[in-house]
Amino acid sequence: MRSLLLFIWKHYFFFLFLLLQSFCIYLVVQNNYYQHASFISSSNNVSAHILESSHSVKDYFYLKDVNEMLAKENAELRSRLLESYSLVVNDWSKSEDTMLRQKYTYTSAKVVNNSTNRRNNYLTLDKGSKQGIRAGMAVITNAGIVGEVLAVSENFCTVKSMLHSQSIVSAKIKKDGSYGPLTWDGVDFEHVTLSDIPTHVHLVRGDTIVTSPYSKIFPENIRIGTVDTSERKSGENFFTVKVKLLTDFKKLTHVYIVENLLRKEQEELEQRSEAGVKE
Questions:
Q1: Do residues 140 and 256 lie in contact, with contact meaning Cβ atoms separated by under 8 Å?
Q2: What is the Cα–Cα distance from 111 to 107, expressed in whole angstroms?
Q3: Which run of H or of E encompasses 159?
Q4: Which of 208, 205, 191, 200 is closest to 232 using CA atoms?
Q5: Which residues, listed in sequence order, are joined to residue 255 by a DSSP beta bridge?
Q6: What sign does the dihedral 228-232-236-237 (CA atoms) show?
Q7: Which of 34, 156, 224, 261 could be bridged to 209 by S-S, CB 3.0 to 4.6 A?
C-alpha cells in the first residue's frame, strides 16, 4: 500500500492531467449535442461487441449440453419415422384394415472410448442395462452404420465396431437391390468389402450402399457407404466391391442404439422351423 501511495505521489502530475482531461471530455460531451450523440452511439457499439463476445464464449461452453439434447431429440424423431414401423395387414377381414406397428426404437448415446487401429476394434458407450440396452442391438449415426452392441453393464456397453474381423452386415446396392455380405479386411479404416454381387449388375463409382432387409438388427436402407472400386476375380461370377464408408470412425462422438422390437419373435420362429417343429 505504501509503495502504491509513493508511486501516485511521484507521478501525481500525470494523474492530475488525466483527471482534468477526463473532466474536459465530460463537459464537451455533456454540453454539445453532436458529441453527446456520438459518444452514446460509440459506447453502445462497444457494449454490443462485449456482450456478443460474452454470449459466444457462453455458447461455446454450452455446446456439449446442446449436442446431447439434440441427440436425444433425434433419437425420438427417428423412432417416429415411417421406416421404424412395419405394415400390418389384417387379411382375415373382408375390409382392408391396415395399420402400422413400431418395429425399431432409438436411444442416443455418447462415445466414451473408441479404437480404429487394431484388427478388432471396439467402442464404449455411456448407456447400459439401466437404460434398456442389451447385447445384439445395432449402433448407427446420422452418417451410417457403426456396429453391434457386444456386452452391457449397468451404465455402459461395448460395441463391436464395423472395423472388426468378425463383423458381417447384410448390405445391398441401393439402385437395384443386389445384396451380399459386408466385411472389413483389417487394412483401411475408411473402407470395407462387399462380396457376392452378380456380374450383371452395372456398378458405377459413387453408387450408394445401404443395409439390406435381411439384417436382423439394422433397419433397412441405413446408409453404409459408396462404391469405390469393383473387381471380378478370375473364375468367379461375382464382383468384389470396395466400399468407402460414410461414417468417420475417428470422429465419433454421439451415436444411436437401435432395438428391433420384433427380432426375438423372428428368431424363435426360425429356430422352431429349423428344428422341424410345426405349429
A1: yes
A2: 13
A3: strand 157-164
A4: 200
A5: 109
A6: positive
A7: 224
CA-CA-CA-CA torsion sign (12, 16, 19, 25) = negative
Residue 249: exposure state from Cβ atoms within 10 A (0-12, 13-18, ≥19): buried
Task: Specify the pLDDT at position 98.
Answer: 42
Residue 107 DSSP SS3: strand
- The pTM score is 0.67
Q: CB-based contacts of 71: which residues, under 8 Å, 6+ apart?
A: 108, 110, 254, 256
Distance CA 111, CA 45 (A): 42
Task: Quote the pLDDT of residue 95.
Answer: 34
Rounded average pLDDT per 10-residue block, the chain, 279 residues: 66 68 64 52 49 51 58 60 47 41 87 93 94 94 93 95 95 94 93 93 94 92 94 85 94 92 88 73
Size (the chain), residues: 279
Cα dihedral 238, 240, 244, 245, rounded to 10, equals 80
Q: What's the grid cell of residue 196?
A: 457376392
C-alpha cell at 275: 428344428
Q: Any idea which fold 169-245 has?
A: Thrombin, subunit H (2.40.10)
For residue 13, give the 3-state DSSP assignment.
helix
In 10 A of CB 127, how many CB atoms? 20
CA distance 211 to 167: 14
- pLDDT of amino acid 168: 95
